[in-house]
Amino acid sequence: MLNSSLSASRTRKGLWVGALALAFSLFTGPASAQDREMLNSSYDIARELFADYNELFAKHWQEEAGETVNIKQSHAGSSKQARAIMQGLSADVVTYNQVTDVNVLAERGKLIPEDWASRLPNNSSPYYSTMAFLVRDGNPKNIHNWDDLVREGVELIMPNPKTSGNGRYTYLAALGYAQEKYGDDQEKIDAFMSELLGHVKVFDSGGRGATTTFVERGLGDVLLTFESEVNNIPALNPSKNLQVVVPKVSFLAEFPVAWIDKNIEKNGTEKLAKEYLQYLYSEDAQRLLAGFNYRVHNETVKAENADKFPEVKLLSIKEIAGSWDNAMKTHFASGGKLDQLQRQR
Fold it and tell me: Which residues are within 8 A (CB) of 115 and not within 5 positions of it... i.e. 6 or more apart?
């Protein structure tokens, strides 16, 4: 049942392509009346994943609680999503791709407690990924590692680190590689990062926009995005013969989730919202996540997918930048390192 659902989802290319143009979209369930309703605010490229997860969870909820549930989805860059909640979007849960976009709901919005990450296992990250490359048929530019991205004539497509958690992860993955290679030589690290940014032909606002630019518009030689995304794309575009390249050193991309305390109290969805996130850790849900090419924590599912995910040295935010707060202030704030490196070009 689960495999057929996943297969059906991946064949819905028309729906996938139609969603690409939307910076912010809501998907609702069937028009018939439901016992319960809730809203999941999620990141840009998670539409298909949560469309399938919602079906799996709705079945679980009906078996456990005897109720039907209509789960609405809201998708955009996770930073944009967090701002929408701060401005009044009454989401019950968030399923984001960057810790800082959940932190802001605690620190500035006062909508959740500051210790939200301790409420669920693995720092409230039920799955994780890393950054990878997608190249064109035959890998004509011979791309195998981060160094290959800065060769003459190589054009990159990636999300903008200013607007996208996906883009920030990509930037930090490249930075981690440069730190591994050049050690304490900050001048060489900066030179590499400046050169890399100079090879970016298009900075899209989010991950799905970057995919559209590379796949549909045919721009660039390499797409830089989540491993989960690059592994999903070739199956949706078999005629293009796109190839996946996973570098040996990359960034540990956690996918944090949280229920929004103020909203679930107001909406009367506390039990439903908490179970929606807790069920992501179940074996069935972990198997679904792995089917969408995310790395998971469940040992049984990990063993089943051992050949699917290559060994990668995954560097944490602490190893690369000390903390997310420091990364945001040092690299991504106005006038920070990212701006400085781009001005050097």
Answer: none
Reported as a single tens digit per residue, the pLDDT across 227-266 is 988 998 998 999 999 999 999 999 999 999 999 999 999 9
From 246, 297, 249, select the one nearest 120 (Cα to Cα).
Answer: 297
Burial-class residue 239 by CB neighbours within 10 Å (0-12, 13-18, 19+).
Answer: exposed
Percent of the chain with pLDDT over 70: 90
Domains defined along the chain, listed by start = 2-128+254-304 (3.40.190.10), 131-251+312-343 (3.40.190.10)
Q: List, in sequence order, every beta strand (DSSP E) within the chain.
A: 25-27, 36-42, 69-75, 93-95, 127-129, 131-135, 156-159, 200-204, 222-226, 243-245, 249-251, 253-254, 257-259, 295-296, 313-315
Beta strands in 176-248 (DSSP E): 200-204, 222-226, 243-245
Residue 85: closest CA among 114, 111, 59: 111
Q: How far apart are CA 289 and CA 280, in angstroms?
A: 9
Q: What is d(CA 328, CA 120) in angstroms, rounded to the nearest whole number?
A: 24
DSSP 8-state code for residue 344: T
Measured at the CA of 28, the angle between CA 24 and CA 31, to 5 degrees, comes to: 145
Neighbour tally for 4: CB within 10 Å: 8
Whether the CB-CB separation of 46 and 69 falls below 8 Å is answered with no
Strands (E), 228-272: 243-245, 249-251, 253-254, 257-259
Residue that has been written with the tokens 């991504």 in this structure: 332
C-alpha angle 206/280/9, rounded to 5°? Answer: 60
Asked if 258 and 102 count as a contact pair (C-beta separation under 8 A), the reply is yes
The predicted-structure confidence for 184-209, as pLDDT tens digits, reads as follows 999 999 999 999 999 999 999 888 89
